[in-house]
Amino acid sequence: MSNNQTNNSASHFPEHGPVDENGREILLSVKNIDITFGKGESAVKAVKNASFDIYKGETFSLVGESGSGKTTIGRAVIRVNPLSAGEIDYKGVRISGKIPKSLDREVIRNVQMVFQDPAASLNERATVDYIISEGLTNFKLYENEAERVSKVEHMIQEVGLLPEHLTRYPHEFSGGQRQRIGIARAMVMEPELVVADEPISALDVSIRAQVLNLLKKFQKEKEVTYLFIAHDLSVVRFISDRIGVIYKGNIVEVAESEELFNFPLHPYTRSLLSAIPIPDPQLEKNKKLYIYDPSIHDYSEDQPEFVNIGHNHWVWGNKKEIEEYKAIREKNVPLQSITIVDPNKKDEFGNAEKATELRAEEIKLPPLHDTGNVWLTVLSFLLFIPGIIAAILFKKHNYIRNYKACKRGVKLFFILLGLIILFYLIGFIGIHF
Ligand SMILES: Nc1ncnc2c1ncn2[C@@H]1O[C@H](COP(=O)(O)OP(=O)(O)OP(=O)(O)O)[C@@H](O)[C@H]1O
Predict the structure, then answer these.
(1) Hey, which of 30, 68, 73 would you mutate to test ligand 1's pocket, going by the most ligand atoms within 8 Å of its Cβ?
(2) d(CA 11, CA 370)
(3) Which residues, other chains included, contact 223 with Cβ-Cβ below 8 Å and sequence gap of 6+?
(4) Where is this region: Disordered (predicted)?
(5) If you count Cβ atoms within 10 Å of the first and of the last residue's Cβ in the chain, which end, N or C, has fewer?
(6) How far is the CA of 34 from the centre of ligand 1 (A)?
């Protein structure tokens, strides 16, 4: 807890939230919420009966295709979107619906948002200093000007930029730098919960990992809890403690990251997993995409519910489906949810036959950024050695005038280069075989 919060004796929130049956502190609890836009015939129910808890200090990711309602839920958490049913609790205190102004201010102070498009979310006419200071000023989180400057300068450096950047405007920065400013604006408030809405989707692939690492750094140092919104399971796999899968406004599965990748029980989760690109082009070409067909569920009589089937794994289904999911989970054998077909072997209907099945957990994902080959990097660092040797010998023997010596020098250069390549090959073989 930050100093500002501990000093605030009139806080609406207790120091700790409620704990679940395993003793984990629940920071945010989303309980059976519906969110509807518009009225009457044109009403759109963007979120239906959604429930999940977020534990203190964890990264909870909400994943689903475009238009599934992820942003709508994120905006409901920060009180921008009103609920049409259900409630949202923060540390056990209801923060949805009509609440006192002072509680509303406390929510704004404690729950910050990082947006997908850093270009659109920063005020282009304001300096970086103003943007980062705005929240501090609104909440009077400093004693005097020197303290404000010190907080802002410290924060700009925390996100990897420099104090001299404070006088500049957002358009003077790259996309990645602008997202760093967006993160600084949120983190300077010392929030407990950050809703990160696709914070890397609009960025170049090469800088996505840097921004993720920055968010992770804050989590480690300041125990920030994240609600991370993404449309791609591969992005959230390594950064999430738990993942919630959402389909057309309905949360269909919630489980710990590894549990979800090993036991994707809801068919929609399986379809998302089958869409993760496999880095091996041959396997990717022959991969069979699993298309989710919602008409497979018959909910005409047996109504679906969101049920914990054990292992803190929640699935949406009717009684019959839940029994099936439980039976699959109790076998404790990870599911092979990725199917690779052999295009040369056709079945009686002319379809390519199944050749192998993989677990989603087995797919080795490419890094989020292109690191290149580490051994090529090592090699490039060593290349200066023959250069230096050649320069020394040239100076000593003045080779350019001495043909024989020049030949010897070139020979020596190639021997050294050969040795370096040999060293590289040994390393390469050692790593890959
Ligand atoms: N202000 C609004 N008014 C009317 N409909 C809205 C509004 N905001 C969202 N919607 C609708 O709610 C549904 C969910 O949208 P939302 O933006 O939450 O999806 P999303 O999963 O975040 O998608 P994306 O990944 O594309 O941002 C969509 O059908 C969208 O058109």
Answers:
(1) 68
(2) 46
(3) 56, 57, 192
(4) 1-20
(5) C
(6) 13
Q: What is the pLDDT averaged over residues 257-282?
A: 90
Secondary structure of 301-366 in HEC code, one letter for each residue: CCCCEEEECCCCCEEEECHHHHHHHHHHHHHCCCCCCEEEEEEEEECCCCCEEEEEEECHHHCCCC
**Residue having the nearest C-alpha atom to atom 1 of ligand 1:** 37
Convert the pLDDT of each residue in 324-347 to its tens digit: 999 999 999 888 777 787 777 766
How many Å apart are CA 254 and CA 335, to the nearest integer? 16
Residue (of 109, 254, 124) closest to 190 by Cα position? 109
Would you state the pLDDT for residue 203? 86
Ligand 1 atom at minimum distance from 249 CA? 14
Most confident of 145-154, 364-373, 374-383: 145-154
Buried/exposed code over 272-306 (b: 16+ C-beta within 10 A; e: otherwise): bbbebebeeeebeebbeebebeeeebeeeeeebeb
- Residues within 6 Å of ligand 1 by CB: 37, 44, 46, 64, 66-72, 231
pTM of the model: 0.80
Kindly indicate the confidence band of residue 263, based on its pLDDT and cuts at 50, 70 and 90. very high
